[in-house]
Write a structure and sequence with these properties.
Number of domains: 1
Distance between the termini: 37 Å
CATH architecture: Orthogonal Bundle
Radius of gyration: 13 Å
Number of strands: 0
Strand content: under 5%
Helix content: 55-70%
CATH class: Mainly Alpha
CATH topology: Rna Polymerase Sigma Factor, Chain: A
CATH superfamily: RNA polymerase sigma factor, region 2, helix turn helix motif
Structural class: mainly alpha
Number of helices: 3
Shape: globular
Amino acid sequence: MDAREDDRLDRDLVEQAQHGDREAFAILARTHGDRLMAIAHRILRDVGRAEDAVQQTLVIAWRELPGLRDPDAPSRWPEGDPDDRPA
């Protein structure tokens, strides 16, 4: 699968998750979890805090997903600082 196909699959999963499909969101979380963890660990330099930040980020993403206007946006989510997420 090439990058464009991956992007299309992510977009489809996001759209399904926006309509409450928990399995679609779980696939997104598994697909991007390692990348999120790597970024969080690089920023926080502590495995426990990084795991907490990723979990919190995913909870917030699930909660806010229905209002997402751009289904391509999740590919950019990990670029932010996970420690800056609201509590």
